[in-house]
Structure formats: C-alpha cells, structure tokens
Write a structure and sequence with these properties.
Layout: H1 4-13, E1 21-26, H2 28-31, H3 37-48, E2 53-57, E3 70-72, H4 82-88, E4 94-95, E5 103-107, H5 110-114, H6 129-132, E6 138-143, H7 152-159, E7 170-175, E8 181-186, H8 201-206, E9 210-215, E10 218-223, H9 225-238
Parallel strand pairs: 1-2, 1-6, 3-7
Antiparallel strand pairs: 2-5, 4-5, 6-10, 7-8, 9-10
Length: about 260
C-alpha cells in the first residue's frame, strides 16, 4: 500500500519542489492501494507542495454538452473517475468555473490560478488554466494513464491554432459558488484527436519531455509542459499530414 512517505519520496526523486505546480491524471485502479484512498492521495500531494499548487482535473464534458448545457460548480459531477469526483467537492480546494474542463486547485495560489475560467469559450483557451501549465516549475503526472488522457495537449492545439479541432458553438450556463448564473457561447471539441496522442510518445521521449517512473503498481509518465509545447510546434511545423488522425508513428526526420 502506498503511504504518504512513498508519495513524498517519489516526488523528491523526480525533482518536484515544495513550490512546484503539479497536475495529475490518475487511474486509482492502476496505481493500486493508497493509504486513505482518494482523499489520502490528495493529502499526500498537498502536504508536500507546501508552497506550491496541486491540480486535479474535474472534467464534465460528458454531462455538460449541447443537450445539457449547464455547469454548476457545486453539484455537477466529474465524468473522469474517482479521484476527480472526490477532489471536486473537497472544502480545502477551489474548483474552477470552466463548463467542461474544470480543475480542482489546492494551495496558497489556488484561487488566483483558476480566476476567469467562467468565460472560457473553448475547452483549453489561450490564457486559460490549461495554457497556464506551460510555465516554469510545472509538471504533469500521468499516474497509470497514457498520453490519450493528457488534456494539456489540447491546450497546445489551441495555442497552435490547429484546424478542425472545435465544433459548432452553443450557449452554456455556468453557476458559480454563490449561485450566480452566467451564459456565454461555447465551442466543444470536434475531431480532437486525443485517442492518437500516443503518436507523440517517441518525439517527447527523445527530447526528454516525457519519462516513465514506477510508483506503486503503475508506470507514471512524468511530463514537461514547456518542452512539449516547443516540440509540438516543431512537429506541426514540419508535418505534411494530420499527426493525430490515426495511429501512425511520426517520422524521425520531423524531430531528429
């Protein structure tokens, strides 16, 4: 069973500092038993990041959509697993007001980090929470999941203005912590390509933007957002086809 000391030792081993920003995509089943379960895992990270920021995605894209265009930060349940569901409603966290790609933030700068998400008009807009991960001293941990679960790559898509990634707009309603309702236009993902993000693995590993480290029963992807943005800009600048249209190994001459 993973203990707090195991988590802290792991974070020290991979070079995470107490003032780092860490976001996790997590499969609790793959990770194996954790002392205290989901709450324990959150406590383990937050107790280490004493001067930093801990982020857990609390996405709702499956249940906030064109047919049900309502996101209530206090009641809308995440659609991506156990840890996000627990994190979304913890009293010591602040859940962002993004209608489909919210995060729960923990730490001294949590409120500041998620400000403005209520007006997001796309899943991962420029200047939004996901784009803000492209900052120094930030790491994304893929705890027992693959690159197809890495939402940050969608943020790079939007930074690069890749075509045909967004669908037709609809009007979404966001309800904040005080019950205030806000409406705005929102464009969801369309042909997002996330199922093919594994195509990026070899280039990312080649440049050291992704490495695998064991933790519990899982292999953890340690992911560098800054390097990744640079690498994807390079790849798409050389690409002669849609790199995320199907499972296809990216030619080495695109990055070597």
């Amino acid at each position: 069973m993973l203990t707090r000391e195991d988590i802290h030792q792991f974070l020290r081993h991979i070079g995470v500092r107490a003032d780092s920003t860490v976001l996790v995509h997590t499969s609790m089943r793959s990770l194996g038993p954790v002392e205290g379960g989901c709450d324990g895992l959150i406590d383990d990270f937050t107790s280490y990041l004493t001067d930093g920021l801990f982020l857990v995605p609390t996405h709702t894209w499956a249940n906030v959509n064109r047919n049900n265009p309502l996101y209530d930060v206090k009641t809308t349940v995440p659609c991506i697993g156990a840890l996000p569901t627990v994190a979304a409603f913890r009293k010591d966290g602040i859940r962002s007001l993004h209608p489909t790609h919210s995060v729960a933030a923990f730490g001294k700068k949590a409120k500041e980090f998620v400000v403005g998400e209520e007006v997001s008009q796309t899943p991962c807009p420029k200047g939004g929470v996901w784009a803000r991960l492209c900052a120094e001293n930030t790491v994304i941990l893929l705890l027992g999941v693959g690159l197809n679960r890495n939402t940050y790559i969608h943020a790079v898509d939007e930074i690069l203005d890749l075509p045909d990634r967004l669908g037709e707009p609809y009007t979404v309603t966001v309800v904040d912590y005080d019950g205030k309702r806000m409406e705005h236009s929102f464009r969801p993902h369309h042909n997002a390509g996330s199922e093919y993000f594994e195509n990026y693995r070899k280039p990312l590993e080649y440049f050291g933007a992704l490495r695998q480290v064991p933790l519990g029963n899982a292999s953890v992807g340690v992911f560098d957002p800054q390097k990744t943005a640079e690498i994807l800009r390079l790849l798409w600048g050389r690409a002669e086809y849609n790199l995320c249209e199907d499972f296809r190994e990216i030619p080495e001459n695109y990055y070597k």
